[in-house]
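Pasting as-is:
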Amino acid sequence: MRLLLLHSDFVEYEPISKEISLAEEGISIEKKRMEDVIVVLAAVESDDDESTVSAAAEDIKKYANLVKGVRILIYPYAHLSPNLALPQRALELLLALEMSVSKEFSTVARAPFGWTKSFSIRVKGHPLAENSKIISREKESGVQKSENSLSNALKAEKRQESSWYILDGSRDLIPLEEYDFGKRSNNLKILADYEVSKSRIVDETPPHVRLMKKLGIADYEPASDSGNMRFYPKGRLMKSLIEAHVSSRISEYGGIEVETPIMYDSQHPALRSYFNRFPARQYNLVSDNKQLFLRFAACFGQFLMAKDFQISYKNLPLRLYELTKYSFRREKTGELVGLRRLRAFSMPDCHAFCKDLEQAKQELLKRLELSLQVINELGISSDKDIEMAVRFTRQFYEENRNFIHLLVSKFKKPVLIEMWEERFFYFILKWEFNFIDSLRKAAALSTDQIDVENGQRYNIQYVDENNARKFPIVLHNSPSGAVERVIYVLLEKAAINSRSGVVPSLPLWLTHTQVRMIPVSNKHVEFCEKMLNKFNSCRIRADIDDREESVGKKIRDSETEWIYYTLVIGDNELDSDQVVVRDREAKNQYNLSIEELIKRITSLLTERPYLPLNLPVRLSERPKI
């Protein structure tokens, strides 16, 4: 609840017309006036309850005693908050506030709720005449300002008791403190320390932030909320290619692509229950007297859609897929840095509806294989670049020990295990791939979960072999994790490689320009354009640096942009069927015909999506970013 307390010489107000359908009835439209009065402008928020009312009444009493006021006007004023309660609930709590304040003061009035009113007020001219209060509830410790309306799942996550182990191919879980990591498992040790500490704060800038700016991929947007990035043409192309590749692999797996809204009514019974079981902070907004929130995953839309389907056991597992543009999570400010953790991100999100736990377990194994395939094809090695964490309840482990050992064996490396003594969330098992960056921070990529609640919560039903209606088990899989985080990993990998003496680069299929042609003079531009047509016809992105710069500077700029192949075109190339190829990754140059170069490049781009350049092919025509 938000209050603005104004010690006033007078207030005069007049109801004009109903503003909402739930406006109070039987209201006199005569002008009202009160003198020497404390005007309490009040906005009731979505998280308020009777405890909030009690605290607000106590604050009003303290203020009135301070300024020696005896008359109170409670004036509904929705403009104080963007996070309003529904009208019916707001009126209930305002009536309760009026009743509570009336116990302390003989003259208490309330302006009508839900009406447009004209009003005049003159505030007294002393230092205490204006006072504001923000009151939020906190069940455990009375009323105080809460942290961004934390969901019950987030609060439970802070309190949960976990046991930590390593599973390395043996038949037993090895307690974390007893495991000998050795040199080969250095990143696994970092992951374990990071997860056990639960600290997500980043206190220095990771290398990928410098690289994303240097390469013209992305940057911060100062005119937006933190964690909402701008992507330049090169970054947009890179994102589109990753999205296309992941979507293609999910389609091959059997995912059915759908599209769902990005905002939902927080008072919808299933949704209200669900986001209190999901450990994420949401964005809230108000529209047409509805309290809405921006989705933090594709779950809501896909579940509501599946509820309306007529599903037979023969249709299961049913796999629904959406590439969310965007999902929104109000992560803590100190955790936001570059592309590692964002508040708005694109997430490939694939749910599988399974008839029972056994089918769900078999489907989970298929999706693990899918995720391993996708992550490797994106240029992130499952052997060298990622570590795996698996989380489950003690009960699930005791009942499914063989399955968990089989799941872990698919990863072919030791994994971190977190075992919960009781279930806090809607899932009983969750696995994830984690990348360890230059700052020894872990970031989750691919993930999947076994969800045992939401089939029933959303009333999703299928008809089994005996014509009985049942609720499915739901799997939540993102084969790659957030698209922006994939780019973060690729840039961090490049930075790590650079420190080891390896040429920093991005995967060739994700590089904006794959071939750069540098004409020595204007007379060589026409020849470059002929070659450009050959490259384009073979789905290779090439451009021409026709700027008024020296050849040396153009070569250095090509190197700075991490372009794999650079061709300098002069008189010798006009008279020959070969060109000199500067191969950045090989740190070498050699002679090849254009046809041979095209064959070499296309062999490296097998089964990867293609998009044409989204900038002018002539550098002289491009804006400088």
